[in-house]
Specification:
mainly alpha; Cytochrome Bc1 Complex, Chain D, domain 2; 5 helices; 57% helix; 0% strand; binds heme C; iron; metal-binding
Length: 114
């Protein structure tokens, strides 16, 4: 059963990538100022443990941000950031993410994976 649900997840991810691809080549749009702030913040404060871009950075102990982008929407990401600010997440220590930081990070996440 597990392999079936993994397969379904992969198919969904592929479908959503295909849907986004019709908007033009990835990276062709300039980033919004908010997304740029989010990217700088991610590179400064998160890149030690997460692959924060689209590359296959091996330095990561946490999940890749491009994968999180597929698993969460803007609203659930905001909630996750609030929880992390309070409690951390598993092996991730609590890291303060302000409301503004969270908005910028969400804007940046939305540029990942098209
Ligand atoms: C000290 C290392 C470390 C740093 C720094 C770090 N993380 Fe994490 N993060 C982790 C690890 C390890 C996990 C996986 C733990 C878990 O959720 O079980 C994780 C999980 C997460 C999750 C939850 C993933 C999920 O599956 O729900 C989010 C969201 C997240 N990190 C965002 C961030 C953001 C945003 C930053 C920068 C502000 C950041 N992390 C900085 C180590 C780190």
């Amino acid at each position: 059963m597990r392999s079936i649900s993994i397969l379904a997840g992969t198919t969904l991810a592929a479908l959503s990538l295909a849907a986004c691809a019709s908007n033009g080549p990835p990276g062709s749009d300039p980033m919004s100022p908010s997304a740029e702030r989010g990217q700088r913040l991610a590179e400064r404060r998160c890149a030690g443990c997460h692959a924060v871009g689209l590359d296959e950075s091996p330095a990561a102990s946490g999940p890749r941000f491009s994968d999180l982008h597929l698993r969460y929407n803007a609203l659930s990401l905001q909630k996750r950031f609030a929880e992390i600010t309070e409690h951390g997440s598993g092996e991730m220590p609590p890291i303060h993410i302000s409301r503004q930081d969270a908005e910028d990070l969400v804007a940046y996440f939305e540029t990942l994976g098209g």
